[in-house]
Specification:
Blueprint: E1 9-10, E2 15-16, E3 19-20, E4 59-62, H1 72-86, H2 93-111, H3 115-129, H4 136-150, H5 160-168, E5 172-178, H6 181-191, E6 199-203, H7 208-217, E7 230-234, H8 237-246, E8 250-254, E9 276-279
Parallel strand pairs: 4-5, 4-7, 5-6, 7-8, 8-9
Antiparallel strand pairs: 1-2, 3-9
Helix pairs in contact: 1-4, 2-3, 3-4, 7-8
Length: 289
């Protein structure tokens, strides 16, 4: 966070503590209003100012997994069950998890994201680490850990439905998620949130080129005008925030304690003229948009 200013953004009605992680200069800003120590920071930073609510007509690209609904926590439970079943006597649970992370990185390249890819990673990791032969019974047991994820009901994060209803009345919302197309579409249907979005984008990967393609498809380009009204909102620094900033968008990082370890990354600084905001709850979007 070195070299970045930190402000508190407020609505007209109440203070909403957030961080704006880029230098901003405007005569509309009020003076410092107090301390705020966000979950991801150390001691409170005394550079808080006030930003007015962004005007209607913004285009908000919004992530799905661990932004709108819980997702990775179910994978973590499956991984814990997998490690317990493997019960390796040579490797510690932490070492098994590191091995699985490496296998997942390999599998993503060939199989993409989603449950089939995750299942393949568990099976391959078991084959590599198991001291005994990989029996058919073991295969079925390992596969069952992944299948349990598919059986989970959609659990919306707090305030999501109400906030989407509010935002969709003022702005254009586009769902921007990556992964297995059928899986992501099914989760959206079961969530009951589809009606709030004017468009759905399920992509293979989130990189700067993909973000540029999406915003061009919906009538704009990443120029000086666009970056004032196009935003990417999500929990992943690696997929939601950094590539969106690189593509010329503004971004809102929504903190989630269970973000997938392969999506961890240091947040990039917002380029000049762009905004990077960090919030600890989806519902707080309603106060600034």
């Amino acid at each position: 966070m070195v070299g970045r200013s930190t402000q508190t953004v407020a609505s007209n009605q109440s203070w909403v503590p957030i961080k704006v992680l880029c230098p901003i200069h405007s005569a509309a800003f009020a003076e410092w209003v107090g301390d705020y120590g966000p979950p991801s920071a150390g001691p409170p930073v005394r550079y808080h100012k006030v930003m007015p609510q962004f005007p209607p007509g913004q285009t908000l690209l919004i992530d799905a997994d661990d932004t709108l609904w819980e997702n990775n926590v179910y994978f973590e439970r499956a991984i814990a069950a997998f490690i317990g079943y493997l019960n390796h006597h040579e490797y510690s649970p932490a070492e098994v998890r590191r091995a699985l992370n490496e296998v997942e990185r390999e599998t993503i390249i060939t199989h993409g994201y989603g449950l089939p890819s995750f299942t393949h990673s568990l099976l391959l990791c078991f084959e590599r680490l198991s001291p005994s032969a990989f029996s058919e019974e073991s295969r079925r047991q390992v596969e069952s850990f992944a299948r349990a994820i598919a059986d989970q009901e959609i659990e919306l994060l707090p305030g999501v439905a109400e906030t989407l209803a509010e935002l969709s009345a003022r702005h254009r919302l586009i769902l921007m998620t990556k992964g297995n197309h059928a899986e992501q579409a099914d989760k959206l249907t079961r969530s009951g949130l589809a009606s709030y979005f004017s468009a759905i984008e399920i992509v293979a990967e989130k990189d700067p080129a993909t973000y540029r393609e999406v915003i061009q498809r919906y009538g704009s380009a990443p120029d000086a005008t666009c970056v004032r009204s196009y935003w990417m909102i999500g929990n992943s620094p690696k997929s939601d925030i950094n590539p969106a900033l690189a593509a010329g968008l503004n971004a809102v990082h929504l903190l989630h304690k269970d973000t997938w370890v392969l999506e961890h990354a240091t947040l990039d600084a917002a380029p000049e003229g762009q905004l990077l905001i960090e919030l600890d709850a989806f519902a707080k979007l309603g106060a600034i948009f």
